[in-house]
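Me: I'm a chemist; would you kindly supply a protein sequence with its structure tokens?

Assistant:
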Amino acid sequence: MTSIVVLATRNQGKVAELRRILEPYDVELLGLEAFPDLEDVPETGETLAANALLKAHAVSDATGHVAVADDSGLAVDALNGMPGILSARWSGTHGEDLANLNLVLAQLRDVPDDRRGAAFICAAAAASPDGREVVVEGRIDGMLIRAPRGRNGFGYDPIFVPSGETRTTAELSPVEKDEISHRGRAFRALAPNLRDLL
């Protein structure tokens, strides 16, 4: 029997990505668009893992299904690990991808190419209605370039070149990105644990 898992996001890019990753498992993945009355969960945690767990528990409690949530961030070496937990609202408004990207580029304008190291980090959590939980982390290291390239992906993807690559994550195909991305790594680590929660 197929089990329902709810992904605590309205971001269709994330829903599509997790659907691809969970394809080998007998799971029907729903995004929050299936629950239009559900309000967004405030990200009040002090870490990516805390935010992921907050969202997973809130959505699981509200829907009665196992819920999966993630919180991701871009950690820039020259910015002492920021924007980190503030990545989605770095420019002041949540989800303004272009404004966030442009602010990071402006902040790194005078930083030499060899000091533009960064990492994408993702904490992925799952929670069941009975309160059980699991949280894992995925990470990918790379460098930030000076101008956006590529049309795939979202967020900071157009300026992030993974270690060992010459293309940005926005120039990779969705399948290529899933294989190496922080979110892909975190969700692949989380997926086997879902069986214990279902």
Remarks:
- The chain has one domain: 3-197.
- The mean pLDDT is 92.
- The radius of gyration is 17 Å.
